[in-house]
Specification:
Blueprint (H helix, E strand, L loop, with lengths): L10 H14 L6 H8 L5 H10 L7 H8 L4 H5 L11 H20 L1 H4 L2 H14 L8 H7 L7 H26 L4 H10 L6 H8 L3 H13 L11 H17 L1 H7 L1 H20 L11
Helix pairs in contact: 1-10, 1-16, 2-6, 3-6, 8-10, 8-15, 8-16, 9-10, 10-14, 11-13
Length: 289
């Protein structure tokens, strides 16, 4: 394995930041609810919970609350386990892959989907993902047990999913160690200007305005947030520490790929992510500054 010093500082985070949106496109696309409805899941919120958790099996609200971290349990329990009476994990996984396929073809066009660059990106991202560790990473471990799709754009999407969930699982370890609950994590991330907007959090995560204000008060009592809802110096330092811990826990895939491979994957991923964003993949109202 490549030594720790071989990679430029934050190269893994930079690579992740341009790969992750490629995975996330289907969550905001009309193709996902359409395919989920065919699989028996007609509520979009239920569709999100089951499509992301289906690799773990027909799990209940407790498992989803634990592994997704920042959704209100009550919202999850409104849909799970009831939705599993209507469908199966395999049906959901098949529907999710069809949605990803249709979404990426619409956003990128057939030429990009079938390009040599897409095949190269898939090969590099899969090589990185194979070095992920399963221990204490339930979402990564579950997705790592799924077969790799044959089509290069779906193989790349699958690898992006693995890299996203690997980093995400590690990030939850960091949040837990920092003693931030799910909503406090969201409030501090929003306060950086890089997370979901206040409105986006409340509309998608099940929290109320009262919940939000209570979380702000808890953060103020710890000296992490000021009276205006901005991060204090201690809050900025905490978010910086969180990212550095997450980087450290997520370094194995990128060290395995090596500096040249990470640089090339970052270059290719930037091109594909820029293309899907320019095609309108993400609603601006949900995100921060």
């Amino acid at each position: 394995m490549t030594s720790h010093s071989a990679l430029p500082e934050r190269a893994g985070r930079t690579c992740h930041n341009v790969i992750n949106p490629f995975h996330s496109t289907h969550y905001f696309a009309p193709e996902l609810p359409a395919e989920m409805a065919k699989a028996g899941v007609d509520d979009p919120k239920a569709g999100y919970f089951v499509c992301r958790s289906a690799a773990m099996g027909a799990v209940g609200p407790g498992t989803v609350a634990a592994t997704f971290y920042n959704f209100k349990y009550d919202l999850i329990a409104r849909h799970l386990p009831e939705v599993w009476k209507k469908t199966t994990p395999q049906n959901v996984l098949d529907a999710r892959l069809r949605a990803a396929d249709a979404t990426l073809r619409r956003l990128l066009g057939d030429e990009a989907v079938m390009s040599p660059e897409m095949a190269e990106a898939a090969e590099l991202a899969l090589r990185a993902a194979e070095a992920g560790t399963r221990r204490a990473r339930p979402l990564y471990a579950a997705h790592a047990d799924l077969p790799v799709p044959d089509a290069p754009h779906l193989a790349y999407w699958h690898a992006a999913t693995l890299l996203r969930e690997h980093r995400g699982d590690g990030h939850l370890v960091a949040l837990l160690d920092a003693e931030l609950d799910g909503l406090e994590a969201l409030v501090t991330h929003t306060a950086t200007g890089r997370g979901m907007s206040h409105r986006g959090v409340l509309s998608t995560r099940g929290w109320s305005e009262e919940d939000w204000q209570a979380a702000q008060e808890r953060l103020r009592s710890r000296g992490l947030l000021d009276g205006e809802g901005h991060l204090t110096e201690a809050g900025v330092r905490l978010r910086k520490d969180l990212e550095e811990t997450t980087d450290r826990l997520d370094r194995a895939p990128y060290e395995h790929l090596g500096a040249a491979g990470v640089a090339r994957l970052t270059e290719l991923a930037t091109g594909f992510t820029t293309a899907v964003m320019n095609a309108g993949a993400f609603p601006a109202a949900l995100f921060g500054k």
